[in-house]
Amino acid sequence: MITLRCTRKVLDRLGIPADAQGFDAPTNALGDWYVNLLRAGREQVVMATSERSLLTVLLPARGMRERLVPELLRAVGAALRDLDVPGDVVAGELAAMQPMAFGPTASRSVLASMNNLAQMAEWRIRDGDSLVAIASWLGGVPMKALEGGGKGMVFPERAARHLLGLEGKRPPPRRLIRLRITLEGTRPAIWRRLLVPESIRLPDLHRVFQVAMGWQDHHLHEFAFGAACYGVPDPDGLDADLVDEAGHGLAELLARHGSGAFMYRYDFGDSWEHRVEVEGVEDNAQGLVSPTCTEGANACPPEDVGGLPGYLEFLAAVRDTRPTSLDEERA
What we know:
The chain is α+β, with helices and mostly antiparallel strands. Helices cover 34% and strands 27% of the residues. The strands form three sheets. It has an eight-stranded mixed sheet, with helices on one face. A five-stranded mixed sheet has the order 4-3-2-1-5, with helices on both faces. Strands 6-7 form a two-stranded antiparallel ribbon.
């Protein structure tokens, strides 16, 4: 059990009294989580930071009253899996985080560190980076050690692994899957070549695709292996045929469905279809720790541009506004 130690604006947003009392002490490894709200243009973003490791996750604030707890658990689980924390350890930490109570912030040092992380996150948000990319980047930012945590600087991702009983540095995966992902219908093609761990799970692969292609993770997604679709189920059960992607690995599904290619769909309004081809499996001779983009071409379309037809109109408008001669450019 843990306490979500919220800033005053978060408590107000949730309708929780400022004098609410949480649990006396957390029972998990990473401790209580401090929760704040950041501004992302017209939207708001929930920022949650582990008090003991400073590991941070970011998630949209939409539906915060009803969805904060399950979305936080999902985000923390994804972040830990991204750090190569074994599945049983992730499950144990998520179980130990429940039940959750709400209360005000309690440690000035944690709050100060979270404010520093928030400032860095807002810079990256203004630059248009995705929430998953920002959170991953924050995990590698050296931070001043907290009270009782020793002197010098600590890396949140290493601190989290250490608290969970693992070596601070992630061991490199032994084998890698080489993928080529192409955004269907684009000419010239928008594509990337990626090396990902053979053990990668679908939630983590989704994050890799978002960062590599340049999307901002503002919309729903799904993976399609033939007729079988995997994604994040609707909490009201409206997607009866959609299998929960959590816990499913890429290698497992490739073997199960016997295919060397699958589809990754993003933003069901704009309907972006990506074809993903498996080009091979190889030993990790380079000792890569994180998924890596090795090749690619062309930037992805802007979010909410209206799908492929809207993107073509966008490109035409950009071309029409460009100077047609050196004299126009100088004017």
